[in-house]
Amino acid sequence: MVYLVNCASCHNADPRLPGSVGPPIAGSPRALVEARVLHRSYPPAYVPKRSTHLMRPMPWLAPQIGNLTAYLQAAATGDTADDPR
Ligand code: HEC
Fold first, then answer.
1. Which among 10, 12, 28, 79 has the fewest CB atoms less than 10 Å away?
2. Does residue 70's CB lie within 6 angstroms of at least one atom of ligand 1?
3. Are 50 and 15 spatial neighbours (Cβ–Cβ below 8 Å)?
């Protein structure tokens, strides 16, 4: 839910696929999700998939970083409970 509401508009309802403006982000590690969503930054030494700066910080999602990371990990491994595949 948190992903669909806040992220899917730019990325994709399926995070393994590129979105309207954002790259695929399935499997993103927690440090990357936290850096992007809260600080609009990247972890040290991380090479971004895109060199654009379109994504805005969403600091109110701080309590959801764990859930978002778990969802993106599950999407990468095909292990989502509500996945229709
Ligand atoms: C306004 C559109 C937009 C929204 C909303 C958005 N993103 Fe992004 N995201 C982008 C774009 C575009 C990039 C590529 C870098 C940039 O331009 O900022 C990106 C990059 C990322 C990356 C880094 C990808 C990589 O490996 O380089 C992650 C992780 C990410 N977004 C996660 C999220 C999550 C999680 C949410 C929801 C909480 C979200 N984004 C919401 C547009 C968006």
1. 79
2. no
3. no
The closest residue, in CA terms, to atom 39 on ligand 1 is: 7
pLDDT in tens, 45-82: 999 999 999 999 999 999 999 999 999 999 999 765 55
- Look at 84 and 70; give whichever has higher pLDDT: 70
**Interior/surface letters 5-31, b for 16+ CB within 10 angstroms, e for the rest:** ebbeeebbeebeeebeebbbbbebeee
Q: Token digits for 47?
A: 């090479």
Rounded CA separation 75/16 (Å): 7
Query: What is the spatial distance between Cα 13 and Cα 6, in angstroms, rounded to a whole number?
Result: 11
Q: Whose CA is nearest to atom 34 of ligand 1?
A: 7
